[in-house]
Design a protein that fits this description.
9% of the residues lie in helices and 52% in strands. The protein has one helix spanning 41-51; strands spanning 4-16, 22-37, 57-62, 73-76, 82-92, 102-112. The longest helix has 11 residues, at 41-51. The chain has one domain: Beta Barrel (Thrombin, subunit H). The chain has 1 helix and 6 strands; from the N terminus they run E-E-H-E-E-E-E. The chain has a 6-stranded antiparallel barrel with strand order 1-2-3-6-5-4. A hairpin with a 5-residue loop joins strand 1 and strand 2 (22-37). It is mainly beta.
Length: 118
């Protein structure tokens, strides 16, 4: 089983504005071997209850990935083609205790892109 390459928007702190608020610069980073799948009914219900948002997909992130997946944007290639935003806090397991290559789960909502029902 092999995943796809997704583009994660990584925010880097570049300074502070006149009000002392942080200013970030966004840059794209490709993350390979990401699995994308249908969310479970429980995940959809929980995220709708907790955040009021509808999950489009659930992503499995490969072990060893150290990117920040909380409150960020992700662009997926076809057939999922579109721009998405992560919802909630990613969940992760202990790498050594998980037999496959993926140990982190991230939920995403569709922001823009082609509808899957066209």
């Amino acid at each position: 089983m092999t995943g796809i390459t997704v583009t994660l928007e990584v925010n880097t702190l570049t300074g502070y504005n006149a009000l002392g608020e942080p200013v970030y610069e966004s840059s794209p980073v490709n993350v390979s071997d990401v699995l994308v799948g249908e969310p479970s009914t429980d995940d959809i219900t929980n995220m709708m209850t907790m955040y009021g948002k509808r999950i489009a997909y659930t992503m499995a992130i490969p072990k060893g990935d150290d990117h920040i997946w909380e409150d960020t944007y992700v662009t997926l290639p076809a057939p999922f083609q579109g721009r998405y935003h992560t919802i909630g806090i990613p969940t992760a397991g202990i790498e050594a205790n998980i037999p496959l290559r993926w140990n982190k789960k991230v939920h995403i909502e569709r922001i823009e892109g082609k509808s899957q029902i066209e």
